[in-house]
């Protein structure tokens, strides 16, 4: 399928800004010289202003595409429900597409949604690559990134670094010295890099520099297997898990080994799932405010569509949910 | 927006079957007399066979719409991931829409997806009304219902009634006599009615007829509040929860009251979430095979699109996961 021409393309070829092209089509003020330039580009590429204007009008599909890395993570689900709820009240329909943590699918599905004439895209991103930037630039529709920083556009972020610091400092303050961190791939800037760096820096602030790093994905099963293998070799003071789901995998491996949390090994997670407080012992965890993140993402999208001003970066809060899974050494 | 005319409409007006109309457009064999009839209808309504054929062709969007009652239930998420996984391998993209358990939105979104030219719709339904039947009849595209029986079409079902019987019989066999069931709304035929009736019949088989019914929705919070209120009045032998999530709400209320499971009160759920086995005590629960349900739903859709034969009803299995949350009275 041939890519459709965007306002940005016309702007680039005319040497003007996109908003000038937009004014041209919407009958706003444009200098005569500029008007001629835009007109000649449009004629050269066989665009009829009317058809284009029509397509702009038809573009108000009242549909927002939501691209998610999975459909079965508690935090992502909560974020999507909040997005959906806000948008429905504003009379938008949200269409969710799952990428299964595949960056290429993120790009492909953004293009698909664009061709389907959605009004905007909210991307619960696993990473932000150059390809993401190029694609967003090409598409003339609003895109909001959730969970990963998009330097050329609008992002809603969790404060992964500082949450990590809090947990790292806590671990050290409680006297833990032999610490294992079970994390996710570094292509995920927020969870894989920022969160981990926060933890390492938090530990370092308190003089702890020895830490063993285990690499998992986002699944329960892989975390379970990794921790099981670890415990066959040795029992560290503490396991810090990058997500509650990984912590659940650790629970299972620890319980199967006949060890007690926190007496034999301390455990902490990130996520603050409802269920984490029902475990025995209660999991100590960071709760990200994903309801707020979803709400803000949808609100920001709604404002962008109304051409109201929005901040470039919005950071939502977190809190430490004190459980009983960390011992005092 | 004016509704588009469907092959079914043409079939109805011509007094022939839809497949005859399909053959007409695809150049298959149609009796001369019938051919004339179809032709006159098409001309009367200003349809050009070519345009129609074109729209048929354009219809192959390789997009399947998936309509779900929520995005944050473990069973639904698991089903959607399995659907998505199968369809992606078959080079389809699935678009998920959340209805928030609202029947009117189910209907509205089916229409929306139809107008977006999806190739088919998989509906993880909360209920099946006359309006559903009428709409599916009107749309000339395959629809697969998951979780609720659709008498005029294709359904993938969980065996809610027999799973209910199993739990009801188990409860009675373990000697429980004073039982509280916390369930969901009866508009949900599968969970609200079939599952409940199975439980009641299972208990009845074993001579237990006294049961108090509490009504919740699908949320953790409402279940927690209902059980909290119950426990302020009295402590039954056992609580049977319609879903694991409701059981989690019960756990919280029971723990807060300082009661022990199962010593002071037995508890059982339906769902078989990963996490249910990490609770202390482990929750005894029915695990529905939602991976298989999702797989079968997607496979059935794929077959329908290839015009291969499919069964009208397919029932996926369940198993009792034995935990430690039911005492022997």
UniProtKB/TrEMBL annotation, chains A, B:
SUPFAM superfamilies named among the record's database cross-references: lambda repressor-like DNA-binding domains (SSF47413), Periplasmic binding protein-like I (SSF53822)
Lineage: Bacteria, Bacillati, Bacillota, Erysipelotrichia, Erysipelotrichales
Keyword Transcription regulation among record annotations: yes
Ranges where the HTH lacI-type domain occurs: 5-58
Listed PROSITE patterns: HTH_CROC1, HTH_LACI_2
Residue span(s) of domain HTH cro/C1-type: 2-52
SMART domains from the UniProt entry: HTH_LACI
One Pfam family matching this protein: Peripla_BP_3
Keyword annotations from UniProtKB, A to Z: DNA-binding, Transcription, Transcription regulation
Protein name per the record: LacI family DNA-binding transcriptional regulator
Keyword Ligase: no
Example GO molecular function: DNA-binding transcription factor activity
């Amino acid at each position: 399928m041939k890519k459709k021409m965007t306002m940005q393309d016309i702007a680039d070829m005319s040497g003007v800004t996109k908003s000038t092209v937009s004014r041209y089509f919407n009958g706003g003020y444009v200098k005569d010289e500029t008007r001629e330039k835009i007109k000649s580009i449009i004629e050269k590429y066989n665009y009829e202003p009317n058809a284009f204007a029509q397509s702009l009008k038809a573009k108000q599909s009242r549909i927002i595409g939501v691209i998610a890395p999975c459909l079965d993570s508690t935090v992502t689900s909560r974020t999507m429900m909040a997005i959906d709820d806000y948008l429905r009240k504003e009379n938008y329909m949200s269409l969710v597409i799952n990428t299964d943590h595949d960056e290429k699918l993120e790009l492909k599905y953004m293009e698909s949604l664009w061709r389907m004439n959605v009004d905007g895209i909210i991307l619960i991103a696993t990473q932000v690559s150059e390809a993401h930037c190029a694609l967003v630039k090409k598409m003339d529709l609003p895109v909001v990134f959730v969970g990963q920083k998009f330097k050329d556009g609008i992002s809603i972020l969790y404060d992964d670094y500082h949450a990590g610091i809090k947990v790292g400092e806590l671990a050290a303050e409680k006297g833990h010295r032999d610490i294992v961190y079970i994390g996710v791939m570094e292509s995920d800037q927020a969870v894989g890099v920022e969160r981990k760096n926060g933890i390492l820096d938090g530990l370092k602030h308190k003089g702890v520099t020895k830490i063993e790093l285990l690499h998992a994905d986002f699944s329960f099963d892989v975390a379970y297997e990794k921790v099981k293998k670890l415990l066959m070799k040795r029992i560290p003071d503490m396991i810090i898990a990058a997500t509650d789901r990984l912590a659940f995998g650790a629970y299972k491996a620890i319980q199967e080994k006949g060890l007690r949390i926190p007496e034999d090994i301390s455990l902490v997670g990130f996520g603050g799932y409802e269920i984490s407080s029902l475990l025995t012992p209660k999991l100590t965890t960071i709760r990200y405010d994903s309801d707020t993140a979803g709400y803000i993402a949808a609100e920001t999208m709604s404002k962008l569509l109304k051409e109201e001003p929005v901040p470039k970066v919005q950071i939502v809060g977190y809190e430490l949910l004190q459980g009983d899974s960390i011992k005092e050494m």
